Amino acid sequence: MLTLNYRDSEPIYGQIKNGLKKLIVTGALAPGEKLPSVRSMAASLAINPNTIQRAYTELESDGFIHSIPGKGSFAGRRQDEADQDALRLEALLEKLRELVAELRYLNVTTAELMAVVEGGLNQ
Question: For residues 31 and 29, what is the distance between their CA atoms, to the nearest angstrom?
């Protein structure tokens, strides 16, 4: 599921967080799919469970996973958090608008911007 690079300057919990986030965003982990338990993932990666817990906690606070006490952690948001998704979407779109404005200021063409967007969509 995940591979770690111990020589990378990014902390291990960050690599786990970003790896799981990528799996969720790309659909490799379907919404509602159960994630490995903290202990089982720690054992399979041979790292401290606290490292996994930190990654899970940050993913949950960012809205990429949710936990159900006694059942585990799952990809995606709970149904009752759908309104927060809409707010997050609007915030992300606003950030995108700001980025586009800054890139336009730097004379990046529409074709260059579209190529970047299309490249991101094809990942």
Answer: 7
